[in-house]
Write a structure and sequence with these properties.
binds calcium ion, Alkaline Phosphatase, subunit A, four-stranded antiparallel beta sheet, 17 strands, 2 domains
């Protein structure tokens, strides 16, 4: 009798678990878009109706940050849940760097030089790898810098570290000295998503959407340059009287937004919206300046204060979290970071401890309206695009920053006696980014702020003081 009861209990538990299938997880990651340039963030000229609709349905964290304002290290934070100085993913290009790679004699030489770096992500926990152990299939599309999609633990994907010459826009394929072609390193075949097609996602959803939970990485090369959207998007913004230097960028923002609409429709048409957790974030900001690009005069260079920089236009992002029936559509003003996303997702799927010792904090209980988020500081680190060595972020770090309340402290780091890379600051700077979001007035030397500088500096150093890289994952030797 007892055994019979046990069997029944087991059956009951199994059925119970089957009903509690964890949600699908969809990351929508904008590439090079400034935090202000969304309708729901108050933009006057950017048109983002589909993202605005998602925002209206989401827990909205409007004071979000990425730790670093550059593509690959920022995506690395999202994949690993660790800061670049912890994951070792602090660069776009391993040594000898982007121009060094372009000077190589053959694709074989380039691939051999770049491949050891892929061991860095292969050796650590990632979101797709962890979700895989929990029964998820995962699909990588768009930007991805770690070679083949499987290196980060995706079960399926588009990026394979092979040239994709049919994508004939800049920054996708390298041509080496012997005429051979190689993948640039930022996503190759994956970069077709959004710009050329959404079909691979439709196919993945049709293959896997109903049978097991899935994780979708939607990180199209948009609104990133080249700003070569279909003419209708240029016409739209010209007719609306947008400033000339903003039109190519705004066109790409509109094109990106339309793809978000397509994606949401695809998921909806398959009846998957209610069982899907959506995350929206930007990898780094990008603000058009008024200087035309030499190589492509229809486009404009970005401002010095956005991408790459330690300033707000490079670092800020809205963060949206939506799972219908769970999250509450409301605005949160607290400071949050993209390093918080991985713990948030693990909390949402009921596996908060699936990866030990993550750096961020879960936003989940705030997103579902269960508790108010505590005010905490956010931190970050800025590097050049090219690493001088692997496994040693301390040798390349150029700026560290902390924001607490309205105050942001930026600390430049000189390397080998030279001023900090990037020509952003030569000395410690303190800004009140609420009163002065353009960071024009450096308060660091003002006597009334001496205590703030000291306190923030202590907190920043406690978070990370460059020097000891012995815990950083190493490349393959
Ligand atoms: Ca980017």
């Amino acid at each position: 009798m007892k055994t019979h009861h046990l069997v029944l209990l087991c059956c009951f538990l199994t059925v119970g678990l089957a009903h509690a299938q964890p949600p699908n997880v969809v990351y929508i990651i904008a590439d090079d878009q400034t935090y202000r340039d969304f309708g729901f963030m108050g933009s006057q000229d950017a048109l983002t109706p589909h993202i605005d609709k998602l925002a209206a349905q989401s827990a909205r964290f409007v004071n979000g940050y990425v730790p670093t304002s550059l593509c690959s290290p920022s995506l690395g934070v999202m994949l690993t849940g660790r800061y670049p100085h912890q994951s070792g993913l602090h660069y776009n290009h391993p040594p000898p760097g982007n121009s060094g790679f372009n000077k190589m004699s053959s694709a074989a030489e380039y691939e051999a030089a770049r491949s050891p770096a892929f061991e860095i992500i292969r050796s650590q926990s990632t979101l797709p790898r962890t979700l895989g152990t929990l029964g998820y299939r995962s699909f990588q599309t768009g930007k991805f810098w770690e070679g083949h999609f499987s290196n980060a633990g995706f079960t399926d994907g588009m990026t394979i570290f092979q040239p994709s010459p049919h994508l004939n826009y800049t920054g996708v394929t390298r041509v080496l000295k012997d005429g051979s072609q190689a993948a640039h390193g930022n996503g190759d075949h994956g970069l077709a998503i959004g710009r050329e097609t959404m079909q691979p996602i439709a196919d993945f959803l049709d293959r896997n959407g109903k049978t097991q939970p899935f994780f979708l990485w939607y990180a199209p090369y948009l609104p990133h340059q080249p700003h070569d959207s279909p003419q209708k998007y240029f016409d739209l913004h010209r007719q609306r009287g947008a400033a000339e230097h903003r039109i190519p960028y705004l066109a790409s923002v509109s094109q990106f937004d339309d793809t978000v609409g397509e994606l949401m429709t695809m998921i909806d048409q398959r009846g998957l919206t209610k069982v899907t957790l959506f995350i929206f974030v930007v990898d780094n900001g990008w603000t058009p300046g008024k200087t035309r690009m030499k190589k492509s005069p229809k486009e404009f260079e970005h401002t010095h204060e956005s991408k790459y920089s330690p300033f707000e236009d490079g670092l800020r992002t809205p963060i949206l979290i939506r799972w219908d029936g769970h999250t509450r559509a409301e605005t949160h003003e607290q400071l949050v970071s993209s390093v918080d996303l991985l713990p948030t997702v693990l909390a949402a799927i009921g596996k908060p401890d699936a990866i030990a010792s993550l750096s961020g904090r879960s936003l989940w209980s705030a997103a579902i309206g269960e508790s108010k988020l505590e005010d905490q500081p956010v931190f970050g680190e800025i590097y050049p695009g090219d690493a001088t060595s692997l496994g040693h972020p301390s040798r390349d770090i150029a700026y560290r920053w902390i924001r607490r309340g309205p105050l942001k402290l930026i600390v430049p780091q000189s390397q080998k006696g030279k001023a900090a890379w990037g020509d952003y600051l030569t000395d410690v700077a303190l800004f009140d980014v609420v009163a002065d979001p353009d960071e024009k007035t450096n308060l660091a030397a003002k006597p009334e702020h001496a205590a703030d500088v000291q306190k923030l500096r202590r907190q920043l150093d406690a978070w990370w003081t460059p020097g000891d890289d012995s815990q950083v994952p190493q490349p393959r030797r």
